[in-house]
Design goal:
Distance between the termini: 34 Å
Order of helices and strands: EEEEEEEEEEEEEEEEEHEEEEEEE
Strand order of the largest sheet: 8-9-12-13-24-20-19-16-17
Mean pLDDT: 95
Radius of gyration: 18 Å
Helix content: under 10%
Largest sheet: 9 strands, antiparallel
Number of helices: 1
Number of domains: 1
CATH topology: Beta-galactosidase, Chain A, domain 5
Strand content: over 45%
Oligomer: single chain
Number of strands: 24
Low-confidence stretches: none
């Protein structure tokens, strides 16, 4: 079986990971994450790399210093399989590796894309680690890439809502309602220059997310029972131009990112 359960030292928290995907995070017997099969989204978490956002306006073409390649929405990382490389009672570590210019089948083809094959002109290794402390689930990422490789990175977890649109998202500066997010639609609601966010529920546990490495969030849902609160390096709709150079980070060899998810009452 691909599912593995890890727990916090005090046994207050447990998380279930299925082939590198967080499919359950429970605090004191309460489920925090959206569940597969429920309305809203078919997954619970995934990553967006080396692209965030749509590529169809560019005819799926992405320009890099090594030429033009074909990428579909949110990048090819999600088409690769994770290998479990380390495991303890409180943590799991997974890895994906990619050899430059390797052709990868696009799972969106033919129903949602015209492109059968995607590729990227750089080598990279992508490591995802889950670690439970007594209070927090820490999800961290290490990107080992060729120096100068352009990339965007986003983490895409989906959280359970009670329904009824009574929850709010708060930052240090403002509040966002579920209706605000629904009204934005597929573009997702931008929360920029922010490294901490709270999901406040009318009942059940609230959720705080703290970031390291990421500088922004975007919020997305099309239903009232689920909310994706997504740490991102860049909000892809912040510019009227598609996939401009300014949207990308440049790899320095090894990049580290961290997302801490803390339930609280």
């Amino acid at each position: 079986m691909s599912k593995v359960v890890v727990e916090s030292p005090n046994k207050k928290l447990n998380a279930t990971i299925d082939a590198g995907e967080l499919v359950s995070f429970i605090c004191n017997s309460e489920e925090i994450m959206h569940q597969k099969g429920n309305p809203g989204w078919r997954n619970v978490d995934t990553e967006m790399f080396p692209i965030i956002g749509a590529t169809s306006p560019n005819n799926f073409k992405v320009s890099t210093p090594r030429g033009t390649c074909i990428q579909d929405q949110h990048g090819l990382l999600r088409e690769l399989k994770y290998d479990l490389i380390d495991q303890t009672k409180n943590s799991l570590t997974f890895r994906k590796t990619y050899l430059k210019n390797t052709a990868v089948k696009n799972s969106k083809f033919p129903d949602k894309s015209t492109e059968k094959i995607v590729s990227w002109p750089y080598n990279f290794e992508f490591i995802k680690n889950f670690e439970l402390t007594n209070e927090t689930l820490k999800v961290s990422f290490i990107v080992n890439a060729e120096k100068g490789m352009p990339y965007m990175l986003g983490y895409h977890p989906a959280f359970k809502l009670n329904g009824g649109k009574k929850e709010i998202v708060i930052t240090e500066s403002f509040e966002i309602s579920i209706d605000d997010i629904l009204n934005i639609g597929a573009s997702a609601f931008p929360v920029l220059n922010t490294q901490m966010i709270h999901l406040i529920k009318d009942s059940n546990l609230n959720v705080k997310i703290d970031l390291k490495g990421f500088e922004n969030f975007m919020l997305w849902t099309e239903v009232d029972n689920m909310l994706c609160m997504e740490p991102i390096t860049y909000y892809p709709n912040a510019s009227s131009d598609c996939l401009t150079v300014e949207m990308f980070n440049a790899a320095n060899g090894q990049e580290k990112f961290e997302v801490c998810i803390t339930p609280y009452s």
